[in-house]
Design goal:
Layout lengths: L3 E5 L10 E7 L4 H24 L5 E9 L2 E3 L6 E4 L1 E9 L2 E2 L2 E2 L2 H16 L9 E5 L2 E2 L2 H6 L14 E6 L3 H13 L2 H6 L3 E12 L2 E11 L6 H22 L4 E6 L14 E2 L11 E2 L10 E2 L18 H19 L3 E9 L11 E8 L5 H17 L1 H9 L7
Parallel strand pairs: 1-19, 6-9, 6-10, 13-14, 13-15
Antiparallel strand pairs: 2-12, 2-17, 3-6, 3-16, 4-5, 7-8, 11-18, 12-13, 18-19
Helix pairs in contact: 1-2, 7-8
Length: about 400
């Protein structure tokens, strides 16, 4: 493959470093909501373009805002005073010849479907207002879609990086949030809202977790009840970690801002299970990386992948592909302790012809990168040969991000 560089990375693998910090913003965090709904709109818009025109047309919907509403929390259930506002931004194709594509309708319908599926207490017809600021795209970028072929040209010059494997701390952060937002957990602890943020700090094999979890006020009768249920949830978290991980020590701080004796003002309560109902706004690109975490010790791309189109926007395609390649290398190539895959595009060049592909390998003891470079090259070549399948999976939402 052209422009491929494979070389040894002379640094200590993160798992073996003494200090590590990792974060995840959960399903109902305002930033995660923004990422999820804008990407859902891209998926549904791509399907509509394909259904009507047998091709995906220009769109980039990676600008979105969730403005917090106003609420009044109360033991036994509060009320929403002002609804939240979702603002859709950036560009999409509204017309092809004489045919009109109702981008605004698709955006709102997709948002409502996602909210109904993922947020138990948000009524998207009552608790949300919608503002569409999506405009038609620039002629130069739309023209890329007129240049038909198996692969379109890249619509930007972008650099992305992915890595594998995850460390124990990264896996813990990712899997713990998914557990806390699982159907089973919500049935057992309905007072647990979907807005969960986990910050993890590892010092050698000791871990300190700070967890913010929005409690739903309708399930809390008084301050004593809040702290009792908080203690039960803390025990469930401890049990999950002890059953799945073997750190030397794990310290958990759940809703550490709470202050006993201050009544309702000293508790983390929400009406709808997200801080967006009265406290915190969200924005596309401020949430997790495409692999679901915010790993502060790792190099990461600044690209917001959510909402970008899946056939020309390398800020989405390469961002996710770099992690897929790195993961394939980690799984299939013996002797790789850790690896980083860098992809660089050149605007206008076909997306299957990157300007640079670089695989940085931290090998296991007594392994030389030269001995395994051919296997790595085969994996990279295969992924680019099947890039159209990858883009199709992105378009249909088969590859999850956030």
């Amino acid at each position: 493959m052209k422009n491929l560089l494979i070389h040894t990375l002379k640094q200590v693998a993160l798992e073996e470093q003494p200090i590590e910090i990792c974060e995840r913003k959960g399903l109902g965090h305002p930033d995660s909501i923004c990422d999820s709904i804008m990407n859902e709109i891209s998926v549904e818009l791509s399907k509509e373009y394909l259904r009507r025109f047998d091709t995906i047309l220009h769109h980039n919907l990676d600008k979105g805002l969730l403005a917090a509403g106003e609420s009044s929390v109360k033991f036994g259930g509060g009320e929403i005073l002002q609804p939240m506002l979702i603002v859709y931004g950036d560009r999409a194709t509204y017309r092809v010849g004489g045919e009109y594509i109702p981008v605004d309708e698709i955006a709102i319908k997709s948002t409502k479907n996602w909210l109904r599926k993922n947020m138990r207490f948000i009524d998207p017809d009552i608790h949300i207002k919608y503002q569409n600021e999506v405009k038609s795209g620039a002629a130069s970028l739309q023209d890329i879609f007129e240049r038909r072929g198996r692969f379109l040209g890249a619509n930007d010059t972008s650099a992305t990086v992915g890595f594998a494997p995850l460390t124990d701390l990264e896996r813990l952060i990712l899997e713990l949030e998914k557990y806390l937002n699982s159907t089973g957990f919500k049935k057992e602890f309905p007072e647990s809202g979907e807005d969960i943020k986990i910050m993890g700090f590892r010092k050698n094999r000791e871990v300190d977790l700070t967890i913010a979890m929005a409690f739903v006020d309708r399930f809390i009768t008084n301050e004593q009840d809040y702290f009792r249920k908080k203690s039960e949830i803390s025990e469930a978290i401890n049990s999950f970690i002890n059953d799945h991980y073997s750190f030397e020590k794990v310290k958990i701080g759940l809703n550490v801002l709470d202050a006993e004796g201050r009544g309702i003002n000293g508790l983390y309560l929400t009406v709808l299970g997200t801080s967006a109902d009265g406290g915190d706004s969200g924005q596309v690109g401020r949430g997790n990386n495409v692999n679901g975490i915010i790993p502060l010790n790792r190099p990461t791309s600044s690209e917001a992948a959510a909402g970008k189109n899946p056939v020309s926007h390398v800020g989405k395609i390469y961002n996710i592909l770099s992690y897929k390649i790195a993961d394939e290398i980690a799984k299939k190539v013996e002797g790789v302790k850790e690896n980083y895959v860098w992809l660089l595009s050149n605007i206008g060049q076909p997306i299957n012809e990157p300007k640079v592909v670089s695989a940085q390998i931290i090998p296991k003891n007594n392994v030389k990168v030269e001995e395994i470079s051919s296997e790595i090259e085969e994996i990279i070549a295969y992924e680019f040969e099947h890039l159209d399948d990858f883009c199709r999976d992105l378009a249909f939402g088969k590859i999850k991000i956030c």
